[in-house]
Amino acid sequence: MKNYIKFGVVFIILLALFITYCSKADLEKAKPIPIIKERQRIIPLTKEGYSMNPIFSFDESKVYFIMDPQSSSGYSPSRLSLYEIDVNGNNQKLILKGCGWDRPSISKDGKKLITAGINIDLTTGKYTQLKHNLPSPSRYSFSIVNSCISPDGKSFAFSSYDYNQGIYCVDINLGKANVITKEKVFMPSYLSNGDKISFIGKGNFDDSQDWGKTIEIVGINGKDREIIFSASEDQIIYSQFCTKNDNIIFISYDEGFRTKRYKINIDGSNLEQLNDIEISDITKDNKLAVCILDNKVCLYQMDSKDYNQEDLIQALSTFVEVH
């Protein structure tokens, strides 16, 4: 009888150890992919507010971005303003109040910035409403969106949606507007040499929507237009910009409204699908990006592990600021 009791005790102990081992194994298996180590490559620059559209200064020592400082989960258009912060997350300062959500762009000398048709002298802090300088019979002649400044800072391009649809190039000093293309296309972005722009073409998609089917390049004189990428039948292109080293980043949706981000050379070669991180600008050496994570402006090391959707959700749900 004693032997049976001893055997029973030993069996229970072994069974308990086996269950513990299995539970531990299952727990280890169920653990999410560790993000904390990789998260050291994601460095937040802002701590509060709802941010969007960050870009590097031309020397890449600062970041400019749009932010509603009074909300972390959404934004009010009336509170959106332009801010500057250095890449170490120091010296955040307000540049311009009430500038709208438009993506900023900056000249090569780092002295001029444009957003939503507002030209800002970063040296003096003075700004000009460029759309008021355009020669036009009425205020309804143009609906300026997606404006961007030329690398030399002497002109700007914009797309007009509702009136005089198309893309225009404007001499900042003279206010003279030249037509680049006359149909409903949008999101112009200067290539680094300043003599061409990339933009989103409408293709054959529904004209009632503000997105397109092609990525195109054209000279600022309206000549030498070419399509470098055409979306598939179930894909629409929502956003695009040209980086300082002449890669094009664009965002597309499929029929299920799943977001995908891509990078492509300006000659249409080397199409590459990026991760789910909302990259907004990339340094000239392609190693560092500025992005939005959890509505914060962050730096992201491009050579770090490429997150899939599951990883990204985990990174956001356990986001820890790294200093």
The CATH superfamily of the largest domain is known as: YVTN repeat-like/Quinoprotein amine dehydrogenase
Q: How many distinct domains?
A: 2
Overall pLDDT, averaged?
77
Biggest β-sheet description: 4 strands, antiparallel
Describe the structure.
The chain is mainly β. It folds into two domains: 1-31; 42-317, YVTN repeat-like/Quinoprotein amine dehydrogenase (Methylamine Dehydrogenase, Chain H), CATH 2.130.10. Helix content is 13%, strand content 39%. β22 (278-282) and β23 (288-293) form a beta hairpin. It starts with a helix and ends in a 6-residue tail after the last helix.
Q: How would you sum up this structure in a few lines?
A:
By secondary structure, the chain is mainly beta. It has helices spanning 2-30, 36-39, 309-317; strands spanning 42-44, 50-56, 62-68, 81-86, 93-96, 105-106, 112-115, 118-121, 127-129, 144-149, 155-160, 166-171, 177-181, 186-190, 196-201, 214-219, 226-230, 236-242, 247-253, 259-265, 272-273, 278-282, 288-293, 296-301.
Give short descriptive properties of this protein.
323 residues; 2 domains; 39% strand; 24 strands; Methylamine Dehydrogenase, Chain H; four-stranded antiparallel sheet; 13% helix
What topology emerges from the helices and strands here?
Layout: H1 2-30, H2 36-39, E1 42-44, E2 50-56, E3 62-68, E4 81-86, E5 93-96, E6 105-106, E7 112-115, E8 118-121, E9 127-129, E10 144-149, E11 155-160, E12 166-171, E13 177-181, E14 186-190, E15 196-201, E16 214-219, E17 226-230, E18 236-242, E19 247-253, E20 259-265, E21 272-273, E22 278-282, E23 288-293, E24 296-301, H3 309-317
Antiparallel strand pairs: 1-24, 2-3, 3-4, 4-5, 6-7, 7-8, 8-9, 10-11, 11-12, 12-13, 14-15, 15-16, 16-17, 18-19, 19-20, 20-21, 22-23, 23-24
